[in-house]
Amino acid sequence: MKKSMAGALALLATLFLAWGLSAREDDKALKEYQVRVEKDLMIPMRDGVKMATDIYFPVGLEQAPVILQRTPYGKNLMNSKKLCRDGYIIIVQDVRGRYRSEGEFYPFLKDGDDGRDMIGWIQKQPWFNGKLGTTGASYLGTTQWFEAPGQDLAAMHLSVTSPDLKEVIYTGGEMHLMTVYFWGMVTGEHRNNFAAVFNIGRINRAIYTLPLGKADDRAGRDIKYFNDSLEPEKIFKTYEQISLENKYREIGAPAVFVAGWYDMFLGPELNDFNRVIKEGKGNAGDSILVVGPWGHGKAGDGSVSYGDSAGKSDALGKDQELVWFDRWLKGADNQAAKWPKVRIFVMGENKWRDENEWPLQRTQYTNFYLHSSGAANTLKGDGALSMAEPAGFEPADRFSYDPLKPVPTKGGNSLGLNLGAYNQAALEKRKDVLCFTSAPLEKDLEVTGPISAVLFAASDAVDTDFTVKLVDVYPDGKAINIQDGVVRAMYRDNDPLRPTPLTPGKVERYNLDLWATSNVFKAGHRIRVEVSSSNFPRFNRNLNTGEPVPDATRTVVANQTVFHDPEHPSYIILPVIPR
User: Fold this and answer.
1) Topology adopted by domain 364-577
2) I need a surface site. Which of 434, 523, 530, 576 has the fewest CB within 10 A?
3) CA-CA distance, 319 to 312, in Å (whole number)?
4) What is the pLDDT of residues 167-182, one digit of tens each?
5) Calpha distance 474→453 (Å, rounded)
């Protein structure tokens, strides 16, 4: 009971303090200005709906730069006095339909219009000195994204966030079930669902519900956003109208991008950074990227430690927001001008390192091929991994995937309580997990950058999934997940809006995106690739019937075949960095 309560409190802190980057130690470093607060101003948007807004004024300044935060988690939970005492006017607003704000809440849908209306309102105020910044993590980051195109922003601070809702909700045609379901349940419709936070067990049980469209009802809520997300056609059509796909060129503000190797936004956020650098206007090219060994909440099972300098404040300092805004909103010649373009935490070596770009130009993309004599099932099987291509016939590996007995999620890039680095050893005893393991490394091998995989596989089902997981195997047998990916067979062309029927028994090529990492596989360690057909509930399980997800209840066991011969070489592509 105590463990589950602690976990619930950790999740609560993650969601409602916006990942911790907006919570400041404002009582330890009081500066020049006292703070005056105007609470619950009702500011009208273009359609007349009013947004509840708090404004923090530094007493004694007639004009000052403004920093805007828009949140769905309740503006009263935001701690804004620190930046205000440093001479900034801080504006915190409940987004539409949340807490005291009027209107109907549907995640992200109106954040662009409302944010731009709010910026227009700020620009007309006599106390605004012309310099405007935005900050916030997670959802508070997406509000920045959707309001930013075409706006006169001086700087942004974006933490663990992305506007690429297509990739955030679906990867490889597969739904990020844990992320969407847990967030929808805990956030609720109008106010934070505290009952869900303190009943995590009920949520965990309900996610097994079939049909999946009833999982939220069984847990005590009816969340439209969750139900819409079960149908890619519906959710993508809803969000098509607010897509930023062609609007990166309208971003003119430099931004700090804070990402995590185990964060739910990692893949799209890395892409956002590069698109802003290459396509943005004005000072957008001065944006910087920071990636650390963290996830979207309390991460890891304690199997690994990254040392004493792996925290968010160790990357750029605990006052990174203040330093960044002082540079761009006040013109200060400070440390921010000396920050590197890219700062990454290299796991395994457990050190921060500065780079000039992402991905690294010196990357050597290297294929590591799957091998076996047809018995790679479990970690005790004969699966091998090496840079040698298949030279002759190798028997294919086979396993059966039962949707009623999916491989359970242990860590990864999710939202909830089960994320980050976990020991996979228990999962590797399952016969539906193929394990391909290298020989012990003779010297350190650094893998930093985007990861992908190619599988040649067949199934006797009309639809199914395939998963790939990259694992760092320690000399003592501990097996730590580094990154993973998934592909849904009918969406193997990477378009959830255009399914391609699967012919049972036919060999197909599957391309999997495992996002990215930075990890040194130390000498004596081994590299392992796990192949299976489920990773639940990080990804929605495939029932193998091809029936619509929201209403499907029938399950079929799929018999899977994974090939690794000269005609069908299966491999993972690792971004190797010369040491």
Assistant:
1) Jelly Rolls (2.60.120)
2) 523
3) 10
4) 999 999 999 999 999 9
5) 22
pLDDT over 90 percentage in the chain: 83
Q: Would you say 15 and 193 are in contact if contact means Cβ atoms under 8 Å apart?
A: no
Burial class for 115, CB neighbours closer than 10 Å (0-12, 13-18, 19+): buried
Mean pLDDT of 30-39: 85
Q: Give 368-410 pLDDT, tens digit per residue.
A: 999 999 999 999 999 999 999 999 999 999 999 999 999 999 9
Please tell us whether the domain made up of 1-135 is placed in CATH 3.40.50.1820: yes
Strands (E) in 415-507, as ranges, are: 434-437, 445-459, 465-473, 479-488
35 close to 57: Cβ distance less than 8 angstroms: yes
Amino acid 198: pLDDT? 65
Residue 552, phi-psi category: left (phi > 0), alpha (psi -120 to 50), beta (remainder) = beta
Residues in the chain: 579
For strands 445-459 and 558-563, give the pairing. antiparallel
Distance CA 216, CA 229 (A): 12
Q: Is the pLDDT of residue 78 over 60?
A: yes
Q: Where are the beta strands (DSSP E) in 18-80?
A: 35-44, 50-58, 64-71
How far is Cα 567 from Cα 359, in angstroms, rounded to an integer?
Answer: 31
pLDDT at position 429 is 98
DSSP state of 379: T
Catalytic residues: 138, 263, 296
Listed by start position, the domains of the chain span 1-135, 364-577
For residue 414, give the nearest of 312, 506, 505, 484 by alpha carbon: 484
Angle at 205 between CA 200 and CA 206, to 5 degrees: 95
Mean pLDDT of the chain: 92
Q: Are 114 and 131 in contact (CB under 8 A)?
A: no
Amino acid identity at 490: M
Extended strands (E) in 232-312: 255-262, 288-295
162 is written with which tokens? 């992305």
